[in-house]
Amino acid sequence: MKPTVVLALSFLLPLLAFFTNIPLAFSDDVEQVVDIYGNPIYPGFSYYIIPALRGPGGGGLKLAQTGNSECSLTILQDYSEVFRGLPVQFTIPGISPGIIFTGTELEIEFVEKPWCAKSSKWSLFIDVSIGKACLGIGGAEGHPGQSTYDGKFHIKKYIFGYKLVFCLDATKACLDIGRFDAKNGEEGRRLNTTQDEAFDIVFVPAFKADKVIKSVA
């Protein structure tokens, strides 16, 4: 077995052990997911993901180069609360257009992707240099020497807004999406699977984002 595979498994197995203790059925009441204006969010529309509480918690999402990558493929949250970030779109696999409820199985991708990326679809990769499972784009080709895992996301109600939950395609095991301060000069917080506090978020329609950012600046 290759050393990189052994390292990846050493980081993944504890996650899977935790995953298996989580009920597959969500106990929360199912309800339609809404944006900050109270309007339902829909597949194919563009949204910014920002913190539920504005201020020191930072701003929207962006892509950055990490490790030995020559392309911006790792998902980070910017430190600046006035940064709206990159817009995303949601897809319900096999269904179009569909309605997004809490617990609906989703794929997430950025509206635009770097020229050097094969895809803007979100996935999980094991960053062996820091020992964490982080979110990125670009598939296996974009993360050479590191293990990548496909999966689906769910949106669930959280403290002040919502949280994202990632479920592995292979096992259907799930874990919350959190964030942590990045290393090596990275300007932002990486998104990662976590057993601790989840990232409390809301959704802003892309065409109304300028108004929202200006009103809180």
Strand content: 25-35%
The total of beta strands comes to: 13
Assigned CATH class:
Mainly Beta
- Globally, the shape reads globular
Radius of gyration: 17 Å
User: What class, by secondary structure content?
Assistant: mainly beta
The averaged pLDDT comes out at 82
Main beta sheet: 6 strands, antiparallel
CATH architecture label name: Trefoil
**Any low-confidence stretches, pLDDT <50, length ≥5?**
1-27, 211-217
Spatial strand order of the main sheet: 2-3-12-11-10-9
Distance N to C terminus: 53 Å
The number of helical runs is 2
Written as H for each helix and E for each strand, in order along the chain, the element string is HEEEEEEEEEEEEEH
Q: Examine the coordinates and then state which fold CATH places here, giving the name of the CATH topology.
A: Trefoil (Acidic Fibroblast Growth Factor, subunit A)
Domain count, please report it. Answer: 1
Instruction: Bin the helical content.
Output: 10-25%
Structure description:
The chain is mainly beta and 217 residues long. The protein has a single domain, classed as Trefoil (Acidic Fibroblast Growth Factor, subunit A). The protein contains 2 helices and 13 strands. The chain has a 6-stranded antiparallel β-sheet. The protein is globular, with a radius of gyration of 17 Å. The chain starts with a helix and ends with a helix. 34% of the residues are buried. Mean pLDDT is 82; it is low at 1-27 and 211-217.
